[in-house]
Amino acid sequence: MIRSATFIKGIRGTDPILEDDIPQVAFVGRSNTGKSSVINSLVRSRDLVKVGKKPGKTKEINFFYINNKFYLVDLPGYGYARASQDEREQIRRMILWYLTDSGVRPVMVALIMDSNVGLTPLDLQMLEVLKTNNIRCTIVANKVDKIKLADRPNVLDGIQKMAGDVEVFGYSTRSTKGTDQLLAKLMS
């Protein structure tokens, strides 16, 4: 259970926070998948992570100190269509730098995706980066509440088949169902 959550700082490159030996759990995903909302629901806060009215709000790597034990790291969303090609490339490079070249080894990465959209080619590329670099990860199929109850098992099974051996969690930020299980997975 999360008892305390504090925003520490946002970075765009090398910073002493990367070297302080505090474990990090990172959140990554396309813009508009509800990444910030997932983090807020896990920490049971409406406004720890700022949720923008438009996708693509997060432009840096944001660190939140949880229970005085570890960081939740909110990475910028990738693939925002209204951003320029240069901006999208900068975001892509920042994410890859954090995951592969920053010297940090996240204990877990949660790949947030929209269960209504499914795993996109960009999500599959990110999944490949995580697997290639032996980074533990799980997929959070967010917005599952927007799928008819009868259709959910088939949708989640389809996502699981595409994900291979990476565990998929159906999740909704509108309810607390699944929050404890997801937290247990992320903090294990």
Structure description:
The protein has 188 residues and is α/β, with parallel strands linked by helices. The chain has a single domain, classed as Rossmann fold (3-Layer(aba) Sandwich), CATH 3.40.50.300. The chain has helices at 35-42, 85-101, 121-132, 152-163, 179-187; strands at 5-11, 24-29, 61-66, 70-74, 108-114, 137-142, 168-170. Strands 1-3-4-2-5-6-7 form a seven-stranded mixed sheet, with helices on both faces. The longest helix has 17 residues, at 85-101.
What labels describe this entry?
5 helices; Rossmann fold; globular; 188 residues; single chain; 31% helix; alpha/beta; seven-stranded mixed β-sheet
- Any idea what the radius of gyration is? 15 Å
Domains counted in the coordinates: how many? 1
CATH class wording: Alpha Beta
Report, as a whole number of angstroms, the end-to-end distance.
12 Å
Question: What is the overall pLDDT average?
Answer: 90
